């Protein structure tokens, strides 16, 4: 007999929600070098800031894509658990109402 398994649907749903907020934050993040360049002033530091911002932009896009993939899996698996649970509940209800010997 297989061990009992428990899925915390509330945690799965809240995790997907938190991930959705992070995706939005990363998507709406502005490029930092334009706003901070004037405040820095030092030429070498400005160059380093540009380099960092360029790398960050590319990596941010990759991270957003990965987060969107995980979000999709989380929301789809959450819905699949709900659908399966609902189907099992219907099957159990139908089985107990018809049982051996016909309807009760």
Features:
single chain, mainly alpha, 0% strand, 104 residues, rod-shaped, 3 helices
Q: What do you see in this structure?
A:
The protein has 3 helices and no strands. The chain has helices at 9-28, 32-40, 43-98. The radius of gyration is 25 Å and the shape is rod-shaped. The mean pLDDT is 81.
Radius of gyration, in Å, reads 25 Å
> How many β-strand stretches?
0
| Outline type | rod-shaped
Terminal CA distance reads 30 Å
Biggest β-sheet description: none
Fraction in beta strands: under 5%
Question: Uncertain segments of ≥5 residues (pLDDT<50)?
Answer: none
> What is the overall number of helices?
3
The structural class is mainly alpha
Order of SSEs = HHH
Helical residues, percent: over 70%
Overall residue-averaged pLDDT value: 81
Give the SSE map.
Elements: H1 9-28, H2 32-40, H3 43-98
Short account of what is shown:
It is built from 3 helices and no strands.
